[in-house]
Amino acid sequence: MSTWGEDDTYEPARVEVQVSMCVSFAEALGALTFAPGVILTPEELADDDDVRDSFRFAVISEGVGSGTSDRARQALAALHGRLPGPNAPSMAYMRVAAAAVTRVFGLADDPTPVPHLFSTSARRTGPFGDAA
User: Fold this and answer.
1) Which of 23, 49, 98, 107 is the most buried (most CB within 10 A)?
2) 31-76 pLDDT, tens digit each
3) Among 22, 35, 33, 25, which residue's Cα sits nearest to residue 114?
């Protein structure tokens, strides 16, 4: 119920809303390592609460959209040492962050490389992963 305060200020009613979402390993890693405003030290990555809080901050502040896919691709490239540039995080840091994602969220890196990031040739596969 919204009310008017004693000093004639309007105070809207507020409710807590919980939202569920499904994220992949790469999306979670990207949120923790490339979302603006999220800067975790290796020590903070060892703290499950810091990891959860930082992930929540990344999702709340950035939302889920096209940036999520971009950050996921960057995170996988950095994890596998394929992100060029002087500002790319080290593979050692990315391994610590990846371990945190696995530990806290139960997600693991898919050992299958993303074709458009790590391969120059395309291969058709059937519905069960067999050659088409």
Assistant:
1) 98
2) 999 999 899 999 999 999 999 999 999 988 877 666 788 999 999 9
3) 25
